[in-house]
Inverse folding.
């Protein structure tokens, strides 16, 4: 999946994120992406899923 997420001004309601290296991460484990995509259609366990919206802090959005 191509990451087309945009950074918002507010926390994404109902989403908690502790990945401090993500450009969308804000203090308080807040995700500021406009929306997220969680992927792996064949996942059978939580550890087999991943946030496709993740972008490293050194990237631009």
């Amino acid at each position: 999946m191509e990451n087309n997420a945009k950074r918002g001004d507010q926390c994404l309601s109902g989403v908690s994120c502790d990945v401090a290296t993500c450009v969308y991460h804000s203090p308080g484990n807040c995700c500021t992406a406009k929306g997220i995509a969680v992927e792996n259609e064949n996942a059978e366990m939580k550890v087999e899923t991943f946030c496709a919206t993740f972008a490293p802090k050194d990237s631009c959005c």
Notes: The mean pLDDT is 88. The two ends are 16 Å apart (CA to CA).
